[in-house]
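#lab-general

N.A. 3:47 PM
ok so I finally got the sequence cleaned up, no stray characters, all 206 residues accounted for. can someone with queue access submit it? mine expired

B.Y. 3:52 PM
send it over

N.A. 3:53 PM
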Amino acid sequence: MHKRLLSLITGAAIGAAAFIVPASASAKVVISEKIKYYSVKGRDGLEVSKAMLAGGSRNINMHHAIAATSTRFAISDAEVGVRNGRCVVNNVKVTLDIVYLYPKWSMKSAASPKVRKAWDRFYAELLVHEQTHGKYAKAAAARIEKELKSLSGTVALGCRDFGKFADKRFNKIADDLKKQQQAFDVKENRDSSKITKLQVALLKAE
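B.Y. 4:20 PM
back already:
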């Protein structure tokens, strides 16, 4: 039986919001996406699969992971005002940094056409997998911005109760995102999934 290589979980680090009143601010979600690689070698599917497992272990802090999507959320430029006797968030900036980490096969030209084809098909699906993790994170960023703008605080308390409300919303969004990412990975790790089948095909390619 082959050892499954794919086990990917996206971690969402949601920080606390610092509510300040800058000279100017705009309500928006800013997303940055970067791609990083680690090198793998091998002339056939088995060698490449083993190299990905070893490379993933060195570069990713997750069991049997061969690729990863890391995310970081930041809140800034929050503009707080008073409306209808309540403290409200008029504008806020939510920043999401996404880093994708993929294996890069350095010996592809030395492999057989069958192995190269199996790699191309598997790798294309691997990109789809990681980009789906990114899509879920982007939706969470939009939700954070929406939730922050729906918060209200007590004027008599100097709006200090914002933090309590914000923490509760953040924790809920972070928990929902984690569950969504994990459920997606469970589905993708099934023997019947497309990516698992392509992964097995690569493993057997000679």
